[in-house]
Specification:
alpha/beta, Glutaredoxin, 8 helices, elongated, repeat, Thioredoxin-like_sf
């Protein structure tokens, strides 16, 4: 995109519109827009093109979000949560900022991998619904469309997660639910506090089936 990253947010209304306009949004709060920390932040913004980055030096905006200068905050819609990274610590650099965003960027449907695993574990949502499938399948785009539409219905209640079985790092997840590749795709729902779970193999994903499976388990 040709828009300047990060976007300057000069007042509370701009900042609120920016946060509510994306599944995941990041704002850097700085005292000086030209500080060393702010330039590291700009580099991080350039590395993650698909996440919107904003920058604010407005005392009113900082006060509104209850942050001090040199803080990077990630806002996410899926569990209505936020994560703060204090940059006053001297060793926070572009690498650490990029990792902080990658770790915490949970979405309506989050793709599970060794980096996002950390954010998934730390989410306040107690229910996780996993779609265990092969992304290479020609049916994948349609499955994802329905899975995503289902996620909208359980926003703030259940974390929807995609497990791609073509990644070797995800083999342990498949074996945990005692599934064979021949049984996939499958849905697995998980209650994190007590490891209670249920598994359903599905030929085709439908919004009704996902809804029914989730509601039954929650009840």
């Amino acid at each position: 995109s040709t828009t300047e990253k990060p976007i300057l947010l000069n007042n509370i209304a701009d900042a609120e519109a920016f946060v509510s306009g994306a599944e995941v949004a990041v704002i850097g709060f700085f005292q000086e827009p030209e500080s060393a920390e702010a330039s590291q932040f700009r580099l991080a913004a350039g590395r993650i093109p698909e996440v919107p980055f904003g920058l604010s030096t407005s005392p009113a905006v900082l006060s509104h979000y209850d942050v001090s200068a040199n803080t990077v905050t990630l806002f996410r819609r899926v569990d209505n949560d936020r994560r703060d990274l204090d940059m006053n610590n001297r060793d926070v650099d572009t690498e650490k900022m990029t990792r902080f965003v990658r770790m915490n960027e949970l979405r309506l449907v989050t793709e599970y991998n060794p980096v996002t695993a950390v954010g998934v574990m730390q989410s306040s949502l107690r229910f996780n619904l996993l779609l265990i499938t092969d992304k290479m399948s020609p049916k994948h785009p349609e499955r994802m469309r329905k899975f995503r539409a289902s996620a909208e219905l359980f926003k703030g209640k259940i974390l929807f997660i995609l497990i791609d079985v073509s990644l070797n790092s995800n083999e342990r997840v498949v074996s945990y639910f005692q599934l064979k590749k021949s049984q996939l795709p499958a849905l697995a729902i998980f209650h994190t506090p007590d490891d209670e779970h249920d598994v359903m193999t599905v030929d085709e994903i439908s919004i009704e089936r996902v809804q029914d499976f989730c509601n039954r388990f929650i009840q």
